[in-house]
Amino acid sequence: MPVFRVYQHSKKKSYQAVPVGFSLGAFLASFLWAAANSLWGKAFLLFMGFVLMGVAAVAGAQLNSPLLMLSAVAGVALLPLWAGTQGQQWYCNKLESQGYQLVKRINTQSASHAIKAVKRSEKVQEENAQTRKEPQQQGPRFGKDFRDVRDNAAPNSNQPPPPDFNARPWKKR
What we know:
By secondary structure, the chain is mainly alpha-helical. The protein has helices spanning 24-36, 40-62, 66-97, 111-131, 147-150, and strands spanning 3-9, 15-19, 100-107. The chain has a three-stranded antiparallel β-sheet with strand order 2-1-3, with helices on both faces. The chain is elongated and about 80 Å long.
């Protein structure tokens, strides 16, 4: 069963679900897939890469250089692989730059099922918060399990990971 990342925009209250893993659409139609998902910079890079590899193949044929032709063929084979492996992450980065935040990772059949499950769980959490008001405890509290202290979450919860879980130390903020 595929895993989906569900993102929520805090102001618009809209949801987006992005599958995790290899993107078959980005592999098969690389720069067209990127353009269809409004990833204009990546679409331009992929298109120019294909044009450059095509020019290199023609130049290799004209110059009778098998090394140049093989390099061009390898480039044409590697560009879709690069797009397929990185495509979903590019889309996630675009969503984060638009103000979406990762809410949950969930195993389900489709993106619509993932979004429905997240909405359902949020509704249950709101109802539980309204009906149950626990008294505040004084001093430190330790649960039955060390996980609530370590992860700052309730045991066996399906909370999103802490902010540093997906940290990219090489990326400037």
